[in-house]
Amino acid sequence: MANLSTLSKFPVRIQGIKRESSRWNGGQRFDTTTGELSVASPLISPGGRHDGIEGISQCQPTTSPSKPLQYHLYSIWLFTFSDLKTIVGPKTVFGILNALAFPIFTSSTSPHSLPNLIQILLRLPLIAFWAWINLLPFAICNQRQPGALLEDQHNKPWRPLPSGRMTPTQAKRLAVCLYAVACGVSARLGSLPQCMALVALGLCYNEAGLADSSCIARNAINGVGFACYAAGAVEVALGTTTLRLLQQPGFVRWLAVVAAVVFSTVQMQDFYDQRGDALRGRRTVPLVVGDGAARWLTAGLMAFWSVFCPWYWGLRLAPSAAFGVLGVVILARTLTKRSVEEDKKTFLAWNVWMAFLYALPLTKLLSER
């Protein structure tokens, strides 16, 4: 386990109270001046609010076995709270929309052998759960890294590790167990290959540190990971293992397009977190090439994909224009709205644009009827 003593060099701020911590261990603080052992309050909400306890709780181990089940379930939920809008929600949308559009990817499968709209919509909870259970162990492994702990102490102190709800050792054990659970769920739902690919990508991203050492590797892992999530979500939505998605050339080409879009534009999420990434030593596109150059590069790529993707599907003028206008709005915001809060809004708009991207095959199918 990584040594967390480096966190002692940084001040911790909670509701305007500044405290210098001299020694940290899994969320615990030992004050060498008073000799008191304390832990960060476990009751910090994702919005930064304290639920009844100010500052820190003296000598209260937050991971005590006596904690109720609800406490531990909430801790698990907090690991993925920030990623619901970027992974779980969008991939659920992709699974639904592209399952409905699946006849456009192949001519060898009879439409009568595919599930109908009601059958696919009834599987929505399974799609969302599959995406979430595969995200959960990845998120835990990512957040237990020393650099992530340092970053979260400043940016997301409500997360389970910086708030003291769980220790890094406990998080590691939990992640191992949850990887096994994710593989079991995926085997049952028919998306085990995608799950195994996500496990391998997670090891490269977190344990090997490729996401921190290279912006190209970081974006590439994100691109391939998005494609794996997308393929798994579609397979779960279709509700059968007899359809070999990767044997459908049209679907594989579409996954390649999605992966390329993500690879070239996912740095949209890095603009608002440059301070935290610099603190962590992470080499993101804005930190490697500079903020201004990264924004112009991203804007140019957004313009390209906003034209190319509707052309790829041969869409009519109206849907092409709608998709393109949204892309233009996002690239304009990228260039002109440069505060942290505005960059967060732009990233949220990028996720909406990605949802529209996922809908392009279904738009094409409907236009042909």
UniProtKB/TrEMBL annotation:
Transmembrane regions listed in the UniProt entry: 251-272, 293-313, 319-335, 347-366
InterPro entries: Prenyltransferase_related (IPR050475), UbiA_prenyltransferase (IPR000537), UbiA_sf (IPR044878)
Annotated localization: Membrane
Gene3D superfamilies: UbiA prenyltransferase
Gene Ontology CC: membrane
A GO molecular-function descriptor: transferase activity, transferring alkyl or aryl (other than methyl) groups
Name of the molecule in the record: Digeranylgeranylglyceryl phosphate synthase
Organism (species): Glonium stellatum
